[in-house]
## 1
Amino acid sequence: MPAEAKHPKGAAKQPERAAEDPEQQAEETVRDAISAPDAEGRPRRVTRRFPLFTKDTARPEGGGRAAPGDAPAPARQWPILAVLGLVGLGLLLTALDVFRVGTLLIGIALVAGAALRWILPDVGMLAVRSRFTDIVTYGVLGLAIVLLAMMVQPHPWLQIPFLKDTLHFTVSS
């Protein structure tokens, strides 16, 4: 039985490929400049065409260390630790029945996270998605929590008249 009959199409051509120059084979591979870097810091792909199947993920922009690599771990990740510390303090105050101040602190922590993400070039693990998406997500959620904390009953610090009218319209109809 001939070799071509035993193997699928093109199997007989493989020995010819092995004889080709390895540099020529490296030039034939498609590389994408937006992929995660390899061990030497070069991107694995050099074209902007997206691959059919994703095999790696790139770090979000600004996802580098917030301090030099020789600094201790907490110092390298100070932005996320600052935001988490404020959120933790807000949760503690909320648990201790200082609800309005605790939730305000949680909202302020998220707004501060958005500001840090906008201002600093490297924020460590505070960078989760793209810079724009992080800023919008942290900012909108933080502002919503602050506004809701200021409108909470009894004795709200902030009263928005059209919301009361809207509630009466929906309940009475």
## 2
Amino acid sequence: MHRGSSVSVRRPRRACALIGGAGILLLALTGCSPDPPSAATPSLIADPPQATPAPTDADAALESFTAVTARVWASDARDRGRAYVDALEQAGFVRDDMQVTADRSTVGNQAESLQFSVAWSRTQCLVGQVGPSTGEPVTALMPRLADGACLIGRTRPIDW
């Protein structure tokens, strides 16, 4: 756990189990659809400057990813995938390298778990999971999947 942070950073063994379990849940929820378009998500970083460059090493990137996750989780936008994507982009991560799962199920219920990721290198991903079924946010540095993606199952388009 990072000092002064309530966000857990679990190393690969525990994170694999959690994210793997979330992947199974995600596969079960492949019928979920993206939530309808809404007004732009307000900035979650006070007076953000132009996007800053993302950190250059994996540990620094995970620390930044975790800090962004904690800020969004502490906000009113904690249950919106778009808020995590926008805040990560403001922190310097590349939007085209991101994936996010749907906020709502096909019947309109809030997702029990929301996952989001950034493809960090040719072999690694920064992965976050938040939601009622998770408790506190979880972030981890994980290997990329064989197909190059970071998340298993259907993800929503990042087209805003």
